[in-house]
Fold this sequence. Notes:
Blueprint: E1 2-7, H1 15-29, E2 33-38, E3 51-53, H2 62-73, H3 80-103, E4 108-112, H4 121-134, E5 138-142, H5 158-167, E6 176-179, H6 182-192, E7 197-198, H7 219-223, E8 230-234, H8 244-254, E9 259-263, H9 274-285, E10 292-294, H10 305-310, E11 314-317, H11 326-333, E12 338-341, H12 347-351, E13 359-361, H13 368-378, H14 381-398, H15 401-411
Parallel strand pairs: 1-2, 1-4, 2-3, 4-5, 5-6, 6-7, 8-9, 8-11, 9-10, 11-12, 12-13
Helix pairs in contact: 1-15, 2-3, 3-4
Amino acid sequence: MRIGIIIGRIGGVDGVALETEKWIEVLKKIGHEVFIISGEFESWKMDYERNYLFPALSFFSAEAEWEQRKAFFEPDKDPGLLLDHVEKWSDMIEGVLSKWVKDKKIDVILSENASALPCQLSMGIAIKKLIINTGLPVVTHDHDFHWERGDRYLSVHPEINQFVDDNFPLLLPGVQHAVINTFGVETFKNRFNIDAILVPNVMDFSRIYGVPTPENQFFLRDVGVKKNEIALLQVTRIVRRKGIETAISLIDKLNDKNLKLVITGNNNDDENKEYYNELIDQIHELNLSRQIIFAAHKVLDHKDLSDVYAHGRACTYFSTYEGFGNAFVEGVLAKKPIFVNDYKPVYMQDIGSKGFETVMIENSNLTNEKVQQMSDIIYSPKRCIEIGEFNFELGKKHFSFEVLEEKLNQLFIV
């Protein structure tokens, strides 16, 4: 089967891009041909026969940025101007998509979150038009939805809100919805009376990952962690929902100058660097400048993360909200203890209930008891190894490529 993937960006470190790469790998393994059309290919070796760069699909294209501003941040008095623009611009995009589908002889479309979250309005509408005009079967890989994002996708104009409700997610007959958590399955059933398929985020548990090698032995040293120091790892982008301020507070409470927090992600998705600046203020006020390390300049893409994990002691993952939690399973794969917040709506229902051994806090509250439990693990390398091995076996059972292969065989039937 020739599968055509439509995605805003691929090759980067956000969850949608990372998970799409895993789907591509498994789809190829089970015999499908994969073609990609994307607005951006980050850190990606282009195969020009199968990869097509179409900048209009980028979240950061001029038209996409303008649409977001006029829909949700700086609306005009007349919402009709925006709606007219989306109608015309989506026609242009749909024309390119249709030609691509025809040229590549695509059998089925895979829409990567573009038909679920209205972060690229014209792209979502163009995909809808493409499906209506071609009659192609479609699988939508729905990572998150506008009603889960608070006021982010709420407009002052009822017409815009209705437009979003009518088009995101894509509810055409015959669409197969793959969601990443139980909450998504329940939501589709309760809101739309649709049976979505749960496909959890996965990792390749057969690969060597997070293991010390001669090549990575100085990786943490190169970002500022000395030989006798201990590194806790915050392997996420810098966005507010990641709860990085809690990890910084943990460093303060542990009160050990030989303990450092390494933050691997960049702040590109942090609007006006507002959250990043709050973290900087927190670090300054707590006098932790020598213990908090921003290492995005060394972690150019996710392929380097194995080197980061190799010499870290444990992972902090105090997110308040996640669609799934890639970084959690990644920490499991790397056999590192994880300190986690009971993030909504997923953690206990889809991950914590599996029996992973963690130190879990609730509502971002670092109690003395929990801090002591974390301390006991951090300063016991033997305990870290035991926890890592135990969690690895559980992760292999529930979140491996073998699990993904079984799910994809359900979705893409030759």
